[in-house]
């Protein structure tokens, strides 16, 4: 159901599907009237995964433009204005270039495929593409951190892959996010975060151990985001409704935005279930009249108990959507941040248009 208590609630359009929607992302468009989406589907009746590009009409109907069937179910999906990366539960990575291509041909076949036990063994927990670059970082449950350099000019192949770190199964990674062309952050079990610098190879250069949860839960990081203008601060969401920020300038204490922490600052717990995704929300302006570099900017989250909401440090959360099923993923349209797309566990896609 929609949240009706808001002064101006968003318009919500639901588009039923006949398959499970694993992940969904907006694709950049040259026109505000020609919106497109890339969607990772899974047909539970036939155990068939698919990666599809759809156009979204002004009347909120979807039209299939292109489709590709990966050999395994999609575990993570990321896009930049020129690249698409999709990882799988079988440990493979597939990358596509959108530069100079019509959307009807983008996912006809991957231009770079990275497969085999030398890459990942088991599910890839997360991938991320460098903005404006051609590097893809991947992390897996096997404890491996890999860097793939993509070359797309007339190139089809395996990509230039190198191992950044191998935990040999002693650690497990579930999320990753670039912070700069040489730095990225990983997350995994125990609400732990690791900051990596490719200029200083061998191990993470900074590490946050999430022992602040008072031992109530082991905790897993499901999603990470980093604001382009505040690359020293990492936003993370995970188990038990926990959303927090990790500031490299004060590495020992997290800034709790939702959930239970040991700090004395007041937090508003929005959900007690897993937070599947977090993203900074550029559409919402901070309620603080003086925004300091230490204040966490507004962020959007989705959760296992069906909540899509905006949270801000020290403020009551703003619920945008409350569903009777999990909201598995969402994406904010970077070209028009008032538009949000969500994938619902009950085989449906929701489009929100904020006033």
Automatic annotation (TrEMBL):
Keyword 4Fe-4S part of the UniProt annotation: no
InterPro entries per record: WD40/YVTN_repeat-like_dom_sf (IPR015943), WD40_repeat_dom_sf (IPR036322), WD40_rpt (IPR001680)
Subcellular location: Nucleus
KW Repeat (keyword) present: yes
Ranges that cross the membrane: none
Protein name stated in the entry: Nucleoporin Nup43
One annotated Gene Ontology cellular component of this protein: nuclear pore outer ring
Taxonomic placement: Eukaryota, Viridiplantae, Streptophyta, Embryophyta, Tracheophyta
Keywords: Nucleus, Repeat, WD repeat
Superkingdom: Eukaryota
